[in-house]
Amino acid sequence: MPNQLTYRDVFRFVPNLIGYTRVLLTGAAAMSMYYRCPTSMFLSYALSELLDAADGHYARKLGQCSKFGEVLDMVTDRCTTTILLTYLAELYNSRPLALLFNLITVLDISSHYMQMYSQLITGKTNHKQMDADAHWILRAYYTDRRVLFAFCFGNEAFFLLLYVNKFIASSAALYFSVALTLLAFPLFLIKNTINVIQLYESAKDLAKLDAATLNSQNKPASSAAAAASRKKI
Q: Is 73 part of the annotated catalytic residue set?
């Protein structure tokens, strides 16, 4: 009989070890931002984002998929992006941009939380599982890992380039970086449009579940009232 896994074994899964590394890199990136070390920040943040693809790969390859790993991955993603957007709001020193960065943060957190909650409460195994009747954009986004990686990478690259552009001294390097920023912009735009769709579709799924639950609860009362009415007649 094989040895039974314990929670400590799950904590030591390879993809989860990668997740802890991402947490440390996010901390290093945050410190580098506020201590004005742009090179260190860029390397830490970029490596954390690249490892985001590695943890899922090794989870599937080694048969080490776990609920803890899924939540760790999502929480790390949301925290990493929030830290950078918060700093960009300060770095650009513009009220309209600060408002925009805050709205993007709110959309990012709320859409992913709503998606995870609605998927789990309706019996899905994880927040990326899509039914045949799911919105076609969400199906394409979550069921093809290449599409998921492209838009997530492009979105984070856009934010990271906005940061880098503020610290480049060379005109030629700045032109090149701005060009990359413009190339990443459509991916950022589409990714956040997907977040809007995800938020609405998840809210709709929860409301459908509420309606079905309330209707089933009201059936006995309606049946009893109808029976009482027939007896009076």
A: no
Q: Is 37 exposed, middle or buried (0-12, 13-18, 19+ CB in 10 A)?
A: middle
Does the pTM surpass 0.70? The reply is yes
In angstroms, the CA 36 to CA 233 distance is: 83
How is residue 10 written in tokens? 């799950």
Task: Report the chain's terminal Cα–Cα distance, integer Å.
Answer: 68
Check 55, 73, 77, 205 and give the catalytic one.
Answer: 77
Distance of CA 7 to the CA centre of its chain: 25
CA–CA separation, 114 and 20 (whole Å): 24
Give 10-residue mean pLDDT values along the chain (233 residues): 85 96 97 95 95 90 92 94 96 95 97 90 73 84 89 95 95 95 97 96 92 87 56 57
Please provide the DSSP assignment of 51-120 as one string: HHHHHHHHHHHTT---HHHHHHHHHHHHHHHHHHHHHHHHHHT-HHHHHHHHHHHHHHHHHHHHHHHHHH
